[in-house]
Amino acid sequence: MLGKKLVTAQKRGETRALCLGLGMVTCSMMMYFFIGITIVPFYARSVWTTQTTCKVLKANIKDKVLCPNNEGLEDEDIFPYPCLQVWVNLTASGQEVMLYHTEDTLERNPKCSYIPGKSENSKEVKVQIETIATNFKKQQTFPCYYDPGGTQTNVILSRLYPPKGLLFAFLWPTLMFTGGCLIIVLVKLSQYVSVLSAWQ
Length: 200
Prior knowledge:
Mean pLDDT: 83
Distance between the termini: 20 Å
């Protein structure tokens, strides 16, 4: 009687472990799919892949502007802000080009180098823009990214999805997939050992 209870408990434990392993594998595949349709296209579309050094030539603040590329945005998401324009010398080619914060900045408003977060206080936004402009003037040289193919003649300060960020995004689903497969293998191995023991 005790032996039957132990066997039943073992089978239940194996079933739960197997379900856990299959669940982890399924979740990891869903995460792979999500990353593949969201992050990977942005990474593949980015042409600013080579890092070089940029030297600030001028950092000017223009009048307040609205983001012109506002398709799909609600009216409350559109707000005026001072337009910061930073021009730099690209050491790789010696050209005078405009600097943007990220790839997204160029898509949203190609007239400005930086787009601040929405704030109800326009004075805070103005102070933020002025601080950024001052920092650029103080730090004359800094690393930036440019397009080695020449498709884009401008440069960006930082990439939204650098190679390290992409690898980090794939790290968690990979660990989950590996763990799930390991659990399944261990359960199947345990079942195989139990069958061999029963035949002896």
